[in-house]
Amino acid sequence: MDAAQQEATARARELQRSWYGEPLGALFRRLIDDLGLNQARLAAVLGLSAPMLSQLMSGQRAKIGNPAVVQRVQALQELAGQVADGSVSAGEATDRMEEIKKSQGGSVLTGTSQTSNTGGAPTVRRVVREIQSLLRSVAAAGDIIDAADSLAPTHPELAEFLKVYGAGRTADAVAHYEGHQS
Fold first, then answer.
1. For residue 22, how many other CB atoms are within 10 A of its CB?
2. Polar residues bias: where (predicted)?
């Protein structure tokens, strides 16, 4: 790999960190390990081609272009957490991965997406991830920060919202969301 390719890969990984909280290679490897998958199976569940998954993992591509795939990634992250904490068995996880594979995405904001496995409302984290995904599908983190900086003098609350959800970490956005609920 020449210097220009290395620089492009490093930039793609940095963009991934700003959009998804971490480079996709690390995120996908963790899902593979936590859910007992291989790359081909992960690609199939997400609805990506194996070469596209490989390009995202290696940093040859920065962004997941399909919002439904982003939502499947988020659903798999939730599932991996449930497997890790023992609330979902390996067998149940396999069934849930099939459901995730068939899902078309949808929006938790409009109520068209599947809710949590308890049958109740979507989790705060899921709503926050939906907001982040929507903002990040519209603009890059740097552009969102620039827009927020422009708004800050006259609309500080809106500027904070854009920065937290559009360019911040999920944990910070969850705290912001919970702090603004009556």
1. 14
2. 104-120
Please name the residue that has the structure tokens 């659903």: 75
Asked if 43 contacts 53 with a C-beta cutoff of 8 angstroms, the reply is: yes
Contact 16, 23 (CB under 8 A): yes
> Which has more pLDDT, 134 or 77?
77
- Cα separation, 157 vs 42, in Å, equals 39
pLDDT one-digit tens code per residue, 19-46: 888 899 999 999 999 899 999 999 999 9
- Give the chain's mean pLDDT: 84
What's the mean pLDDT in 89-104?
87
Torsional sign, CA 158, 23, 86, 42: positive
